[in-house]
Amino acid sequence: MSTVKLSQWETMLLEAARAHGLADEEIIHKLRTGNIEAFQDVEGGKFDFTLLFELSKNDPKTLEAAIRVGYQIKFTTFNGIKFLLNKRYDIQAERDYQVTGDTLDQVRLKADELEWLRQAISKNWRIVELEKRAAPGETVVRFELATAAS
Question: What share of the chain has pLDDT > 70, as a percent?
Fold first, then answer.
């Protein structure tokens, strides 16, 4: 099966639910049963999960594959990457990395985190490895637009 492509908004909803503590199978079950109330407390209720319920109803196999196996975002924005880093790995701008212009610089990632991000973000972004740190098992990277000069 090829990689499932989701919109950035769909992935933000999914990652917000995960960050709220909902396990993948729990998310799938609640979407299948139409339990929208289960998502009302996610992010203090500021997100409308209707889009995920519609996708689950119209194309359940695609959404379930995205949840269980992984996805690629169709088009990732600057703030979309910041959101993913924050929700998925509790990595925050200015606390854990620098924001300079249209780059996210000095982001420290473990190997599995880096691998996941390489697969998940759209190809309009480039991840530049700056330094490998053997002791903590991290790679320091910069996220930059793929059209930006190296």
Answer: 97
For the chain, first and last CA: distance in Å?
34
CA angle, 65 then 1 then 129, to 5°:
85
Q: What is the pLDDT of residues 107-141, one digit of tens each?
A: 999 999 999 999 999 999 999 999 998 878 899 99
Domain boundaries, the chain: 4-73, 91-145
Comparing CA positions, the residue from 85, 123, 76 lying closest to residue 107 is 85
Cα 30 from Cα 33, distance rounded (Å): 5
> Model pTM?
0.90
Cβ-contact 51, 14 below 8 angstroms: no
CA–CA dist 1, 15 (Å, integer): 22
